[in-house]
Amino acid sequence: MSFLLRLVINAFAIWLAAQWITGIDIASSGRGTGWDFAVVLFIALVFTVVNAFVKPLVQLLSLPLLILTLGLFTLVINALMLMLTAWISSHTDYGLTVDGFWTAVWGALIISIVNFVLSALVPDRR
């Protein structure tokens, strides 16, 4: 249940970033609202998998930079994970496009804030 909740929160955060930031687009075939929702869920699935498997390794390798910048380098890592998600999903007909690094930084900032707020509002099992 926690994975599905995380997936829906990531989907909403990515959709919101695509709405607010010019340069982040979600490509879909225009088959309807249900199809667009499925595309956003697919992108969120890719983003969740990238954050689960690649992000910890990148954080471990960049630990000196994280310590030196007092954790601000995490925003750069999040932007790189968003760009990696866009690159992976670009190999399909429906995917995420990010125009550049600074666009990814702004998108990662919005996604991080939305994830933080929605995760705080959802009750935890513990």
Unreliable segments of 5+ consecutive residues = none
Largest sheet: 2 strands, antiparallel
Output the strand order for the largest sheet: 1-2
Distance between the termini: 14 Å
- The count of DSSP E runs of length 2 or more, i.e. the number of strands, is 2
Question: Measured on Cα atoms, how large is the radius of gyration?
Answer: 15 Å
Pfam families: Phage_holin_4_2
Protein name: Putative membrane protein
InterPro entries: Phage_holin_4_2
Question: Secondary-structure map with pairings?
Answer:
Elements: H1 2-20, E1 24-27, H2 33-53, H3 55-61, H4 63-68, H5 73-89, E2 95-98, H6 101-121
Antiparallel strand pairs: 1-2
Helix pairs in contact: 1-2, 1-6, 2-5, 5-6
Give an account of the 3D structure.
By secondary structure, the chain is mostly helical. It has one domain. The chain has six helices and two strands. It has helices spanning 2-20, 33-53, 55-61, 63-68, 73-89, 101-121; strands at residues 24-27, 95-98. It has a two-stranded antiparallel sheet. Helix 1 (2-20) packs across helix 6. The mean pLDDT is 89.
